[in-house]
Amino acid sequence: MISVNNLTIEFGARPLFTDVSFVINPKDRVALVGKNGAGKSTLLKILAGEQQPTAGIVALQKGSTLGYLPQVMVLSDEHTVLEEAEKAFADINQLQERIARENQELAERTDYESEEYLKLVEAFAHDNERFTMMGGLNYHAELERTLQGLGFQRSDFNRPTREFSGGWRMRIELAKLLMRQPDVLLLDEPTNHLDIESIRWLEQFLAKSSSAVVLVSHDRAFINNVTNRTMEISCGKITDYKVKYNEFMELRQERREQQLRAYENQQKEIADIQDFIERFRYKPTKSVQVQSRIKQLEKIVPIEVDEVDNSYLHLKFPPCNRCGDYPIICEDVAKRYGEHTVFHDVNLTIRRGEKVAFVGKNGEGKSTLVKCIMDEIPFDGHLKLGHNVELGYYAQNQAQLLDENKTVFQTIDDVAKGDIRLKIRDILGAFMFGGEASDKKVKVLSGGERSRLAMIRLLLEPVNLLILDEPTNHLDMRTKDVLKEAILAFDGTVILVSHDRDFLDGLVSKVYEFGGGNVREHIGGIYDFLRTKDIDTLDQLPKREVAEEIVVKEEPNAGKLSYEQQKEQAKLKRKAEKEVADWEQKVEEIEQRISELEQQMSTPEGASDLSLATQYAEVKKQQATAEEEWEAAVDRLSALDEE
């Protein structure tokens, strides 16, 4: 379908590709992989005809159609969602208008035996058949299913596109592209603006599609589920593997080990030949053998070893101070904007050291609850942060708070402390700020680069509660692995708002699902949650309806209890959690009082004040009693957890 022959691309004096050839066949599902800057997006642009190569030929099979989704595009703001999406069917609409005109002409004409009339009948029949084959009778239903699969609600269809964010408008462009059903789909980071459910839907759509697919994505789970062929761009060459991404990783490792062994053997052979030449170069009796060895050396073709970045960085968060057992407790938390309820009756408790995920469709309240936790917006109900909580928050807007007049290096050097300062260059390199990029001023960085820089700052600040809102959007696979390893080793508490299943896999032990105004707790990892939801088709996606029922946490043994028992258990747990939090606060207040008395007693006047000593002895007794009560409350809560 697409044939690429002897492709060469140069930027200035540096070649990006040299003499590359390959073919994209029908039913191929190709993942383009390689480090940032290798040329993945450039290759997609050339395949789409958006950019011309320095040399070589790109040929699309005659009669084949092609659809291209770039990372950034100019979006229209003049129509409703449905009107804009219907542009995908411009050909069908034109054909339908032509059929209407032909039908009108047939009704008006009476020269039934003439040649022109018979030609008109034939054209009408042909156009009707083509209209049916193009899906003209049911394309509206298919379009609505596609928009819903990508996260839109029916109530959104007649809203102007200008009311939506750039990410949502990109979804409209993706819907238009999918509905055109081109023979070849070229997709550059299609999951960047999708949530988990929409990504799963897109996977299912592409699996059933008859189009060939060539995609660039940093979502490892997505490309592994969608593709059956992996093309790696490295050292100006493309290596083609006819396998999924996970198998490609294994084959690439085996290939490189074979290359290394062959390279080492060749180097030994070269050394032996050179040694023979040097030993016998000036002996007349060996001149024939020496000349033979020289010719043998000239014929050797050097073995190349694939480029691999071995400077893998192991990044750790700085040690954090210990906080209370329950950094976050929500009791009947609700958020409403006028008559619109974002969520209601949210009851959750996050323990110290837990790593949890907030998931759900965009617009269901994940970031809103985060803002409630950050005390950035008002809300109903009670939300308490535990004793000694030091909070670190990452979101896209954090990038706007950076000092634009500082360099990338200065921005990080300001927050780095201790031995980590010796590794600033390595850390910047891991997040794609290597070499001269570290000396750039913040004001010249792109939005994605600023987001990565804000992430590095957060990694170096000593906090014990981390909230990360879509932290992987601008990170490649290697850098995501660096971040994931750092979070796994972090001994504090983490809340992750993310749609990246591979990133969340093995990282979180609890998932909070946002949907329909409710927040439900699911014990287990992200794939445990997805298996529970079994989101395989559009019909299984939860609808956005505000349920009136009280949300009950889904404990591991919840299936064995009746609904009323679950409600009662949840009520007892909330009461026990509040009791723990209250005693924890009491202990904190007593510790503060003890500290004040010790400070007063450390002065000459205080040392001779007997009343201070009496107060100190009394407060120490209160401390012992409060700690005993706190421990008892913790035991009662633990007993409820084990039920």
TrEMBL record:
The keyword Lipid biosynthesis does not apply. PROSITE patterns: ABC_TRANSPORTER_1, ABC_TRANSPORTER_2. It comes from the Bacteria. CDD domains: ABCF_EF-3. InterPro entries: AAA+_ATPase, ABC_tran_Xtn, ABC_transporter-like_ATP-bd, ABC_transporter-like_CS, ABCF_ATPase, P-loop_NTPase. SMART domains: AAA (SM00382). Residues 2-260, 328-541 form the ABC transporter domain. Residues 82-112, 566-600 form a coiled coil. It holds the Pfam family ABC_tran. Keywords: ATP-binding, Coiled coil, Nucleotide-binding, Repeat. The keyword Lipid biosynthesis does not apply. GO terms for molecular function: ATP binding; ATP hydrolysis activity. Belongs to the ABC transporter superfamily. ABCF family. YbiT subfamily. This is Probable ATP-binding protein YbiT. It comes from Alloprevotella rava F0323. The lineage of its organism: Bacteria, Pseudomonadati, Bacteroidota, Bacteroidia, Bacteroidales.
